[in-house]
Amino acid sequence: MTAFADVADVLGLPAPGGRSAFGLIARIEDGLPVKALDRLAGKLAPGDTQFKYRLIPKATYERRKAAHRLSSDEGERLARLARVWAMAVEVWGGDDDARDFLFRPHAMLEDRRPVDVVIQSEIGAGLVLDVLGGLKYGTAA
């Protein structure tokens, strides 16, 4: 499974604050910086300036930007997506192939795109991580 340090790296969190499980939990509860959203959106969809609004509505984003912090629910959503992104990069060996996997419909997800399933819920993230685990460890995926 992906280490918490990998999630922190994806979100751009400095050491030591978010690099352990409990450090990451504390950072999320305190409110991740808005820059974490911008960073994650840039990694997943570098050519899509609107992608971040799939994670947080535009009006909410503008309010969070003024406050410089995300809510804990928004932070959890970001950490969930960052965890899957880190695992996809590990499995596929690079950003482009990981991105291709996440944005292409997958038969084991009822032909849904993995990124959409992850954004939808924690259960969805688990399903995508199961597919990635199957790819990583050589079981059917």
Structural write-up:
The protein is mainly alpha-helical. The protein has one domain (4-137). It contains 9 helices and no strands. α1 crosses α6 (72-92) and α8 (114-120) crosses α9 (122-137). The longest helix has 21 residues, at 72-92. The radius of gyration is 15 Å and the shape is globular.
Task: Please state the average pLDDT score.
Answer: 92
N- and C-termini, Cα separation: 16 Å
**Count of discrete alpha- or pi-helical segments spanning 4 or more residues:** 9
Number of strands: 0
Write down the domain tally: 1
Domain Antitoxin Xre/MbcA/ParS-like toxin-binding: 88-138
Protein name: DUF2384 domain-containing protein
Domain Antitoxin Xre-like helix-turn-helix: 24-83
Pfam families: Xre-like-HTH (PF20432), Xre_MbcA_ParS_C (PF09722)
Attribute tags:
141 residues; single chain; 67% helix
Summarize this, please?
The protein has 141 residues and is mostly helical. 67% of the residues lie in helices and 0% in strands. The protein has one domain (4-137).
List the helices and strands and how they pair.
Layout: H1 4-11, H2 21-30, H3 34-44, H4 52-55, H5 58-67, H6 72-92, H7 95-102, H8 114-120, H9 122-137
Helix pairs in contact: 1-6, 3-6, 6-7, 6-9, 8-9
